[in-house]
Amino acid sequence: MEEVLAISNQPSAMELWQGIGGHFDSLGQIVNEFLDNSVSNFAAHESATRNILVRLTEQTAGGDVVVTIEDTGTGMKDLDSAFTLGSQAAGETPLNEHGFGLKHALASANPANDAWSILTRTVDDLNLGRFKRISAPYDIVDYTGEYCPGTEWPGHYNGTGTIVQFRCSREMYRTLGRGIRGGATAFVTLADILCEDIGFVYAGVISDGIASITLSVEEFEKNPFMRPIGAVEPDWADWLGPGRGSEDYDLGGGKVTISYAFGRINSKPDRIQFDNSTTRKYYMRNMSSSGVEIRINGRVLCSNLFKEIWGIEKHNSYNYLLVVIDLKSQNGKALPKTRTSKNGLREGDAKLEALYAWIRSNMHEPQKDVSLSDHETDLFEELKTRMLQYNPDPNKVIETEMHVFTSTGNAKDRVRIDLYEKTQYGVTIYEGKRDSTTSKDVYQLRMYWDGLVYDGITPTKGVLVAMDHPDSVKGLIQIVNTMKDASGNNYHFETKTWKDCGLDLTSR
């Protein structure tokens, strides 16, 4: 008879705490997790006031920072579920999808498990003149909080609500500035970055009136101040494809409303502190702020998508493009699955793949705007595509990876031609500049020509391409065309504009 084998698998609370921390890339993502809980509560309950206050308090100059998130929600009613890992019983909307967020965020913000607290007050608590407090350290066995009767509520707002407070290290606070050119370390500058981040992540929440978010900044030994956090929104130039609208659609788990906008954007004004109509990070018409952005009920989950949807790499020529998708539903089973830290969507999820397919059905593949290309290499790639499409010669060879001086045997001698074209009419080589050519470009073209001759190929024509060619360049070409190459043939150079080649940069 088989014997029962007992297994003791109760984890150590501290080891568990340290294990579940580190799921977030920055303090901003941690703050978002707590904001999600407040927004979820507002979405699930009718409320006359829907206010959230985010307070940043510098304890000493250059020292730790105390972060406080306070809301005017209904308060936390099921504390048992809220503090149980993986429990979704207290979840009110899809923002509470996993049952890990509160604990993950606290563990990431305060790895030492020694400087955090949650105060909450429901209607019943308010009527009884008390609130509840749960504080560090987190534990698993015999974990307790406390009732606080007759104690003054320490929040900014009166009434019901919840206050989350934790102390984070200066190193954690500085993660707000990660990725900012030139770096950012000043307390107020980092607070401004958080202001912009929140305004971007919760733009739909703010603009739809689901929540009003305020930032309080308390720099050490300086006067504190408060600023409303406005929605960070794109400046649309015009619409593409289906334009702007909404559609009820079943991604595989029930219908959701897809609110969409396909368009071109203008660059936004340079950042003015705490003014979210300006920007330092978002909607800048660059490679890091274009592409597809996906939100759920106004909250951004991922952005800057290209390859995931169309299989194409980010490129300057797509900088104009923005596609904003906002999936609206309170049915979590109808929505794509989010990552546990809610800093992205889970790749491979069937509903996410269905959404990608829906996007492709409305925009098969974005068109490049070559006027945004920052190098003539991009323009020659565009020109190559046009030549391959419109040149009827079935034996044509058109390359942007053709090298010359290959027969020297030394790889360092090899030089790449901007564009190589071989047709029934001969071999044409191209050298170009986006704007204007100089005398050096003439000699670059001559080097291509001489390299082909050295490799045993007879070129027919060399073309110098740019928006403009000064008279000095045209005069030099006339002189070079009187000379002979190593095979005894005259050089045959000419100038063309990008418009002559079918690329009108001024009209794009």
TrEMBL record:
Annotated Histidine kinase/HSP90-like ATPase domain residues: 25-103
The record's section on InterPro entries has: HATPase_C_sf, HATPase_dom
- Note the SUPFAM superfamilies from the entry: ATPase domain of HSP90 chaperone/DNA topoisomerase II/histidine kinase
Instruction: Please report the name of this protein according to its UniProt entry.
Output: Histidine kinase/HSP90-like ATPase domain-containing protein
At the highest ranks, the source species' classification is: Bacteria, Bacillati, Actinomycetota, Coriobacteriia, Coriobacteriales
